[in-house]
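Whiteboard transcription, Tuesday session. T.W. wrote the C-alpha cells on the left side:
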C-alpha cells in the first residue's frame, strides 16, 4: 500500500511559486523518447492481482479494461512470481514494469542460471535433482527465495523439498523448505528461512519428493552454462546445470527500499536483474522505487545509469510523492526545512535525467470535497517542470476509496474529469491507484474478486484515451487557461485569447489547453470542469481557421466538428468532466467542397426517439447512387429506422450489423432524380438509451462514396453530430433549454433574450434550441410553451 496522503502538507508553496519556479535549477533535457506501450498511449494499473491470482483470466480482465501495462507490486517481487506474470502478460497483450525484492524492499543479491534449452529432467521419490552454486562476494547474506522452471502438472497430495547443504557430501544442512501440490505456476518457488551463507563460497542444493510418479520436467541447460557449479542427479555430477533463480537478502538499504543515501545495489545484482528480463517480450521497464525521499536520488541515478548501459531499450521507472501543502518531509522523511521542500524534491529528480517524471495525487476526499487547490497546483508545477526539462509527464488516477487516507470512491464523471484535466496539462501516460483491493478498501477489483462499478468507468474512458493517444503523444503543451473560477496559481482565460466561450446559455466552467505537434499543427483540448452537469457550449474563434476538426474518441480519426468557418463559431456538447480534442487548420481539406452533412436537435431526453438528417453539400454534377457508412455510440443510442426525404430517392438497403455501425445504399429512381447542390436526403431515427446520467454520443459519417451517370465514383468528406442525452427517465422535458434538469424562469429568460430571431439569424445554430415548436423562429408561441411548462 502506498504511504500517502494522510501526511502533513507542504508549507510556503505559495511563496516559492510566486517568486518564480525557474530560478536555481539545473536544466538537463532528457534525450529519451516518449515511452509508449507497443505504440499505444500508456495506461497502467498499480496493485496488481497477487501471485495466487495471477492467471490468464485475471490478466485478460486488465486488458479488457483497456489498460496496457502493470506497475509490478503486491508480492510480484521475485523472479518466480514475475516470470509467471510475464507469461500471462504476453498472452494478453500487456507489458510489465518489473521490480524485485532486492529493489523494492531489501538489499539483496541474485544468483541464477538462466539457460533452459537442455533436455528436461524429472524428480521422483527415487531420483533426486541437485545443483552446486557459488555465493556472491558480499557479506551478511542468507538464501531466502529459490525457484526452478518446470512444465507439467504438480498434482495435489505431492510434496517437494529443497535442502541446502555445505557441499554435495551433505555434511551440514544449511536450510530447508517444502512445497505441497497442486502447483499451477511453471516456476515453483521455495521460501527458506535462516539459511545464512558465507561470501564467495560453494554450496549444494537438492530437490527430493514423495511422489512415486515423475514431477517435471525441470528445465536445464544443454551444457555447462553456469561457471559457479553443476547439476546432479541422484548425487552424480552432470555436464549441465539446472535452471534456477535465488534471492539472498543482505543487511543495508533505506527505510522503505533497498536504496539508502550511502548505499545502492551491487553491480552483480543489477546485471542479474536486468539480464534476466531484458529480452522478455512483455517487459516495459524496471520499476525501482515508489515515492522515494530525495536523499537517495544520487544512488537511484547510479542504478538507472547502470540499467541503461545494460538495457538501453527499456525504461527505468520511479514515481514521486505528490504535493503536500504544509510539510517538508521529502528529503529524509522528516521535516528538513533546508532540503525538504517540494521544489528541491522535484528538481532534484529531474536533474538525474529520468526517462519520465511521474507523481500521484488523489483529489476526491471522503468528506465530499474536491481538493482542487492541490490538484491544480500539482498539475501546474509538473507541467512546467516537464516542459522545462523536456521530460514526459505521467500521473496516477484515483480509482478507489480509502478510509485510512480519507479518499472517496470516485464517480464516473470524477474519474473522467481527473483523466481529462491531467491530459489537458500535457500528461503522456497514467496509472490507476489501485486496481486490486488491498485490505478492506474498495478498488477496481473488490475484496471478493468481483468488478467494482469503477471497472467499467475506467474501461470506457480508457477506450477514448487510446483512440486519442496517437494525437496526444505527438503534442507539446503551449497554454493552459481556466474559466468558471480560476484555481490558485492557474491562469484565467485572457479576454484577448483567440478561443472564447460564446452563446446565450450558462457558460460551462472549463480548461482550455492549446498544443502543437512537431509540424506546428495546432490543437485545442477543452475540458468541462463541471462534474455534475452536462453542457452545450459554443466557442468564438477569432482567428477564423478554415477548418476545425475533432479527434474522434471512438475511432481516433479526425472528424468534422460543428464549426462555421464564416462566423468562426464552434459548438459541442460536453458530458460532466468530459474533454474534447480539436485540431485547427489554416487550409480547408481538399475534399471540403464536396461533403456530407448531418443535422439534428440536441439535447434529447433519455428513452425518447429522435431523428437526424443526412445529406450532401457542394455537389457540382449529379449523384445517382450513394454508399454511406455511419458510426454511432450504442451505449447512448440505438438505431430504429431510415427513410428517404426526397421523392424519387430510395434507401435500397440498410445494413445494421455490427451494432454501432450502419451502411446505407441509396439510389435515384431515374435520370430526373439526381442529387445536385446541397440537399438533405435521408432521415435516420434513433432511440436514446435510458440512462441514469447525462451522456453524449456521436453519430458520424465515416465514408460516403458517390456515383454519377457514367459510373464514376467520388468520395465526399465525412461529418459528425454530437447528441446530448439528458437523464431522468423517458418523460418529456421540452423547455429545459439550459439543461439543468428543470423548466424554470432561467429557460424563459433565454427564449426572451432571443425573441424575434429566426433561421436566417447569424447565431441561429447557437440559439435554435429556444425554438421549441421548430418552426424556424423564436416568437410568442415559444414563450407561451415555456410558461406552460413552468406552471405545470
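and on the right, the sequence the group agreed on:
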Amino acid at each position: 500500500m502506498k504511504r500517502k496522503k494522510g501526511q502533513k502538507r507542504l508549507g510556503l508553496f505559495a511563496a516559492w511559486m510566486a517568486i518564480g519556479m525557474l530560478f536555481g535549477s539545473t536544466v538537463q533535457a532528457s534525450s529519451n523518447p516518449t515511452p509508449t506501450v507497443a505504440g499505444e498511449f500508456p495506461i497502467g494499473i498499480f496493485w496488481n492481482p497477487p501471485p495466487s491470482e495471477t492467471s490468464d483470466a485475471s490478466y485478460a480482465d486488465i486488458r479488457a479494461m483497456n489498460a496496457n501495462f502493470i506497475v509490478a507490486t503486491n508480492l510480484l517481487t521475485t523472479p518466480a512470481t514475475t516470470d509467471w506474470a510475464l507469461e500471462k502478460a504476453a498472452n494478453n497483450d500487456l507489458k510489465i514494469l518489473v521490480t524485485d525484492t532486492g529493489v523494492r524492499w531489501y538489499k539483496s543479491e541474485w544468483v541464477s542460471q538462466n539457460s533452459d534449452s537442455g533436455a528436461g529432467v524429472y524428480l521422483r521419490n527415487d531420483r533426486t535433482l541437485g545443483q552446486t552454486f557459488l555465493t556472491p562476494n558480499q557479506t551478511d547474506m542468507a538464501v531466502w527465495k529459490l525457484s526452478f522452471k518446470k512444465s507439467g502438472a504438480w498434482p495435489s497430495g505431492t510434496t517437494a523439498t529443497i535442502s541446502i547443504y555445505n557441499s554435495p557430501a551433505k555434511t551440514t544442512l544449511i536450510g530447508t523448505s517444502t512445497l505441497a501440490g497442486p502447483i499451477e505456476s511453471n516456476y515453483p518457488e521455495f521460501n527458506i528461512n535462516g539459511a545464512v551463507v558465507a561470501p564467495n563460497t560453494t554450496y549444494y542444493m537438492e530437490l527430493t519428493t514423495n511422489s512415486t510418479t515423475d514431477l517435471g520436467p525441470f528445465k536445464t541447460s544443454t551444457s555447462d552454462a553456469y561457471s559457479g557449479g553443476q547439476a546432479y542427479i541422484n548425487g552424480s555430477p552432470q555436464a549441465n546445470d539446472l535452471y534456477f533463480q535465488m534471492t539472498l537478502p543482505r543487511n543495508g538499504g533505506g527505510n522503505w527500499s533497498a536504496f539508502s543515501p550511502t548505499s545502492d545495489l551491487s553491480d552483480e545484482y543489477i546485471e542479474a536483474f536486468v539480464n534476466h528480463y531484458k529480452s522478455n517480450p512483455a517487459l516495459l521497464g524496471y520499476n525501482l522505487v515508489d515515492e522515494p525521499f530525495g536523499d537517495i536520488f544520487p544512488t537511484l541515478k547510479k542504478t538507472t545509469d547502470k540499467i541503461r548501459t545494460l538495457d538501453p531499450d527499456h525504461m527505468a521507472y520511479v514515481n514521486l510523492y505528490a504535493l503536500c501543502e504544509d510539510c517538508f518531509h521529502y528529503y529524509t522523511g522528516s521535516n528538513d526545512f533546508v532540503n525538504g521542500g517540494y521544489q528541491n524534491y522535484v528538481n532534484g529528480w529531474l536533474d538525474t535525467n529520468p526517462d519520465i517524471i511521474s507523481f500521484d495525487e488523489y483529489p476526491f476526499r471522503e468528506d465530499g470535497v474536491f481538493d482542487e487547490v492541490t490538484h491544480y497546483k500539482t498539475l501546474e508545477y509538473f507541467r512546467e517542470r516537464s516542459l522545462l526539462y523536456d521530460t514526459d509527464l505521467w500521473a496516477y488516477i484515483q480509482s478507489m476509496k480509502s478510509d485510512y487516507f480519507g479518499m472517496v470512491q470516485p464517480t464516473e464523471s470524477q474519474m473522467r474529469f481527473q483523466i481529462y484535466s491531467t491530459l489537458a496539462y500535457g500528461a503522456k501516460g497514467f496509472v490507476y491507484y489501485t486496481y486490486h483491493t488491498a485490505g478492506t478498501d474498495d478498488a477496481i477489483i473488490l475484496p471478493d474478486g468481483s468488478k467494482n462499478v469503477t471497472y467499467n468507468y475506467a474501461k470506457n474512458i480508457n477506450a477514448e484515451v487510446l483512440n486519442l493517444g496517437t494525437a496526444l503523444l505527438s503534442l507539446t503543451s503551449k497554454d493552459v487557461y481556466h474559466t468558471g473560477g480560476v484555481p490558485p496559481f492557474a491562469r484565467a482565460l485572457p479576454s484577448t485569447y483567440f478561443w472564447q466561450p460564446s452563446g446565450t446559455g450558462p457558460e460551462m466552467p472549463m480548461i482550455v489547453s492549446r498544443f502543437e505537434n512537431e509540424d506546428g499543427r495546432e490543437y485545442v483540448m477543452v475540458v468541462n470542469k463541471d462534474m455534475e452537469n452536462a453542457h452545450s457550449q459554443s466557442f468564438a474563434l477569432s482567428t477564423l481557421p478554415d477548418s476545425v476538426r475533432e479527434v474522434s474518441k471512438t475511432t481516433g480519426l479526425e472528424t468534422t466538428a460543428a464549426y462555421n468557418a464564416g462566423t468562426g463559431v464552434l459548438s459541442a456538447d460536453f458530458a460532466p468532466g468530459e474533454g474534447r480534442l480539436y485540431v485547427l487548420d489554416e487550409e480547408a481539406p481538399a475534399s471540403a467542397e464536396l461533403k456530407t452533412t448531418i443535422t439534428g436537435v440536441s439535447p434529447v431526453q433519455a428513452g425518447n426517439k429522435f431523428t437526424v438528417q443526412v445529406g450532401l453539400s457542394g455537389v457540382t454534377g449529379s449523384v445517382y447512387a450513394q454508399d454511406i457508412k455511419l458510426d454511432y455510440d450504442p451505449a447512448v443510442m440505438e438505431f430504429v429506422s431510415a427513410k428517404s426525404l426526397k421523392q424519387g430517392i430510395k434507401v435500397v438497403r440498410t445494413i445494421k450489423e455490427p451494432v454501432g455501425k450502419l451502411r446505407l445504399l441509396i439510389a435515384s429512381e431515374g435520370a430526373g432524380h439526381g442529387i445536385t447542390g446541397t440537399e438533405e436526403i435521408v432521415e435516420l431515427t434513433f432511440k436514446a438509451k435510458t440512462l441514469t446520467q447525462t451522456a453524449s454520443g456521436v453519430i458520424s459519417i465515416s465514408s460516403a462514396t458517390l456515383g454519377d451517370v457514367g459510373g464514376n465514383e467520388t468520395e465526399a468528406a465525412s461529418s459528425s453530430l454530437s447528441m446530448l442525452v439528458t437523464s431522468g427517465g423517458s418523460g418529456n422535458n421540452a423547455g429545459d433549454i439550459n439543461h439543468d434538469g428543470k423548466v424554470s424562469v432561467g429557460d424563459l429568460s433565454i427564449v426572451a433574450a432571443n425573441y424575434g430571431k429566426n433561421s436566417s439569424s447569424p447565431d441561429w445554430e447557437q440559439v435554435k434550441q429556444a425554438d421549441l415548436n421548430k418552426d424556424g423562429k423564436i416568437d410568442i408561441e415559444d414563450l407561451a410553451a415555456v410558461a406552460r411548462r413552468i406552471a405545470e
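Someone added at the bottom: The two ends are 54 Å apart (CA to CA).
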